[in-house]
Amino acid sequence: MNNKVYAGIDIHKDFLVVSVLSGEDNYRTKEYSTDYQSLIHLKRWLARLKVSKIAIESTGIYMIQCVDILRDRFEIFQVNANQTKHIPGKKTDIIDSKWLAFLLSKNMLKKSYIPERMWREIRELSRQRITQVHSKTRAKNRLHKLLIQQGFYLERAFSDIYGKTCQKFIYGLVEDKSLSDIVKLHLKSKYVIRALPDMEKYNPMKKKLSENVKFAIKIILNEIEQCKLRIELLENQILYQTQVKAGRNEQLRILMSIPGISKKSANAIIAETGDISRFPNGKHYVSYAGLAPETYESGGKKKKTRITKRGNKYLRTSFVEAAHVAGRTKQSRLKPYFIKLKKRIGYKKAIIALAAKLMRITHTLLTRMEFYEEQHYKKNEHLLVLPQAKQIFSIRELDIALRSKGLKISVTQR
């Protein structure tokens, strides 16, 4: 007979409903407010009932304070709502809390990872930085759209419409200067000077910007500068928390040794991963980010389809961005791997496969606390192509193919 006592908590914004299950069908249900003092009373009540495990449905920010107060006394099971769906038509707060306690008593719930408070705060900083980057990008796109409406097609004269040179050009437009004056006074690039006739051609009306348009441009430029300042502050704070407070400087250096992973990506990966030892192997780590393909099996036949995307989207985004860089990194074996896949399955799928490979490499290196190293290889060695129509090659065919790549073959008899 199971003598353990279990509890299920259904949390909302202003209140929560808790049901305690002892024995087979003995429930005690109470309702508490979600303020700090009420949660302390809840903790004491659960302790008096000798509750051992508590199941809490993941409800975003509303459950954080409750979990922080209860986790030092009880074993918390934070569960996904998809695993706790009840019978349709019978859904109340009391039934939900009882259902959670029942599933927990039958060992039918899978515990989700609950990061420590320090790592949760570092995560919030990292995600806030991503939000600011997206805000900056949206502001730049609005500025680009506004200039196109006025007849300025900057991409025809500038290779980078978000670079410093183009920004100086935009500031010159706001100050009511002519195109020739802007180039001569503000821009030093010979390329831009040569492109001056084209810019004047693409703005044939030679009209000046109206006061309303200039005001709108100034507002957008100020927004971009504010986003840049906030991003810099957040990056400095994340780096300080990761290196000094969390003591992960060595892990940061290991991640930066992997092709494609910069300091910013390394900080985001550390913040979203937390303790790497909670993943048994690289496959579990890949699945945590939602980069593992879905598998269907019927009649003994297995079929893999697209990736699940059920996982940490921030961690997945960091590795996909790193894969775009690693696929172009010279003197790295990851580039030939990416090129080979791209020819066979296409660019997008190859990027996803490379991101998954980077995650497996990251898991191995962080587990062993080793730096990424590659043996030197000759340039273009991955381009060696042998006849594909045959399964067995003659010595002459191999010799011709290898000599075309500067290699030699020797035959010895035994």
Report the order of strands and helices. Answer: EEEHEHEHHHHHHHHHHEEHHHH
Q: From the alpha-carbon coordinates, what is the Rg to the nearest angstrom?
A: 30 Å
* Bulk shape: globular
Task: Kindly report how far apart the N and C termini lie.
Answer: 73 Å
**Largest sheet features:** 5 strands, mixed
Number of contiguous helices: 16
Oligomer category: single chain
- Summing up helix and strand content along with how strands pair, one would put the structural category as alpha/beta
Low-confidence stretches: 379-391
Total number of beta strands: 7
Mean pLDDT: 83
Strand order of the largest sheet: 3-2-1-4-5
- State the helicity in percent bands: 40-55%
The proportion of residues in beta strands is: 5-15%
Explain this structure to me?
Mean pLDDT is 83; it is low at 379-391. Helix 2 (64-70) links the parallel strand 4 and strand 5 (75-79). By secondary structure, the protein is an alpha/beta fold. It has 16 helices and 7 strands. Helices cover 52% and strands 12% of the residues. It has a 5-stranded mixed beta sheet. The protein has helices at residues 36-48, 64-70, 93-105, 117-149, 164-174, 179-186, 190-194, 196-202, 211-245, 249-256, 263-273, 282-288, 313-326, 334-345, 347-368, 395-403, and strands spanning 5-11, 15-22, 26-33, 51-57, 75-79, 293-298, 301-307.
